[in-house]
Write a structure and sequence with these properties.
Helix content: 10-25%
Strand order of the largest sheet: 1-2-7
Low-confidence stretches: none
Distance between the termini: 20 Å
Mean pLDDT: 91
CATH class: Alpha Beta
Shape: globular
CATH topology: Nucleoside Triphosphate Pyrophosphohydrolase
Number of strands: 7
Structural class: alpha+beta
Strand content: 25-35%
Number of domains: 1
């Protein structure tokens, strides 16, 4: 999801993108390079765009935005995971997110099963900050979004 902002400086453009921080103990003290777009896996016979909307709702606890969803293509992350993304303009209050949860044994080999949110934070960030915070491969989605937006506007601001 992205939104157009009035307060952005000239070096940041006029967009902010929504990113999410993975929940759970492995990610608790990590920041730069670990944030992501809301995402999830789809079955081979499932429509990827429908899956994207469903995963948005599961990870954020808020309805997926209505509007035109623009396909930003795929990237392959370091571990080999292929991620396909869509961009849609919208807005939400990140203080209202309520992610679904997952269970793992924590601490390891303790025999205790604990529940953690799949997403423990969401943030609206500038394009510049997204390039620092996002998983390296997913930065390409921000670049593709900017290219698409500039192409529609016909200018270079």
């Amino acid at each position: 999801m992205y939104r157009v902002v009035e307060h952005a400086g000239p070096d940041e453009g006029a967009l902010e993108v929504l990113i999410v921080h993975p929940g759970g103990p492995y990610w608790a003290k990590k920041d730069d390079g670990v944030w992501s777009i809301p995402k999830g896996e789809h079955d081979p016979d499932e429509d990827p765009a429908a899956c994207a909307a469903r995963e948005f709702e599961e990870e954020l606890g808020l309805a997926a935005p209505r509007g035109t969803w623009e396909d930003l293509g795929e990237v392959t992350q370091r571990g080999g995971k292929i991620v396909r993304a869509w961009a849609v303009q919208g807005d939400l209050d990140v203080a209202e997110i309520a992610s679904n949860t997952f269970e793992i044994e924590w601490p390891p080999r303790s025999g205790r099963i604990r529940s953690f949110p799949e997403v423990d934070a969401a943030a609206w960030v500038s394009v510049r900050e997204a390039r620092t915070k996002l998983n390296d491969a997913q930065v390409a989605f921000v670049d593709r979004l900017l290219a698409a937006r500039l192409g529609r506007r016909g200018d270079s601001t």
